[in-house]
Amino acid sequence: MKKIVFFLMLLLCDVAAAADTEVWQRIYAQVPEAYVYETTPENLAVAALKALHDVDKNLTVGDDKNRITLYYKGLVAAVLRKPEDKSDVRAWAELTSAMIDAAAQKSPEAARRDFELADVMARGMAGILDKDSKFYGDADEVYDILPRNRRTFVARKDGHNLYIKIAAFNKQTVKELRQALQDYAEMPELILDLRGCPGGMLGEAIKAADLFLDGGIVVSTKGKLPEEVFYTAYEGDMWHGKPITVLVDRDTASAAEVLAAALQEQGRAEIAGDKTKGKGSVQKLVLLSGGSVLAVTSSFFMTPSGRELNGKGVVPDKKLPESYEN
Fold first, then answer.
1. pLDDT in tens, 233-245
2. Of 279, 281, 284, 299, which is the active-site residue?
3. Is 186 strand, coil or helix?
């Protein structure tokens, strides 16, 4: 009976190790393919393994030209040669799984936190990528850019003008925006407030720009490939050429910057306020085990004139009027 139980335990360990290897193989294949900058399975594997130190401070990983060394309390715990073919993602995944197994055998803390290891290591791996590539414990966190139960759209009369506030772009934004433009069609001017808007759904921002543009480029994205992907507006300006002022500040980001830049460069709106955040990158999600994800920067937003938004933002045409400072 004991032999049967022992055999089953070995079998379960082999299954778990195989599953871990498959996960790491997928990561080492998909991240370099998606990431806008060059990276290799070796870079990712070394960064992931060094994050074992975040699980147990007694664990450290050394990296030299031909091998990876695992230390526990300063003593050598395991040494593995690097794959001869540095692009062999399967070999790097097997090396990673073997090192994880060695760490769990040596470190009681690593063994206790066995189910957290992949997440901790993936977070460490994201740390060597750019600032916009991040690890999320849950895919929902990627889109949870605002506190829950907060209104994201407001439309009202402001003196003789229509005032619209967009706090985030979600699947209701364009529907609400279109309705507001219809309900207040008699107003002579629109004040579109994007201050503090962290972005949201890019598709909604593109559709929002389309409501005000009579054709033309809204935005394009550029990644590893030399070809850009262009998003254009259809003919027909729902605001019929009436003046638009867009309010922005240092917290206006991402999809909100795309809308502001499109209206500015297409000569459709005047931008007032402070220079925007300059968060002009697109992330592709790489699914990990247990529902966690890596959001990897895959491309950058380009304005209608071909200017990159990332790190530069939208420069306003004028300072925000004093009456709108608060």
1. 999 999 999 999 9
2. 279
3. coil
Tell me whether residue 86 is one of the annotated catalytic residues: no
The CA–CA distances, whole Å, from 82 to 59, 87, 174 equal 19, 11, 52
Asked if pLDDT for residue 180 goes beyond 80, the answer is yes
Any long-range contacts for 90-95 (C-beta under 8 Å, 24+ apart)?
Answer: 90/21, 90/25, 92/24, 92/25, 92/28, 92/41, 92/42, 92/44, 92/45, 93/21, 93/22, 93/23, 93/24, 93/25, 93/27, 93/28, 94/21, 95/45, 95/68
The CB density around residue 222, as the number of other CB atoms within 10 Å, is 17
Catalytic residue among 97, 107, 133, 254: 254
Burial class (CB in 10 A: 0-12, 13-18, 19+), 253: buried
Q: What is the pLDDT of residues 189-208, one digit of tens each?
A: 999 999 999 988 889 999 99
Element of type H or E holding 57: none
- Token pair of 243 as six digits: 């003046």
Find the mean pLDDT for residues 159-170: 94
Antiparallel, parallel or unpaired: β 190-193 and 216-222: unpaired
* Active-site annotation holds for 279: yes
Give residue 45's pLDDT band: very low, low, confident or very high (50, 70, 90): very high
**287: CB partners within 8 A, 6+ apart:** 139, 293
| Helices of type H across the chain | 2-34, 41-50, 89-106, 108-112, 117-126, 139-143, 173-183, 202-212, 255-265
H or E segment and range at residue 168: none
* Confidence (pTM): 0.77
The confidence score (pLDDT) of residue 325 equals 53
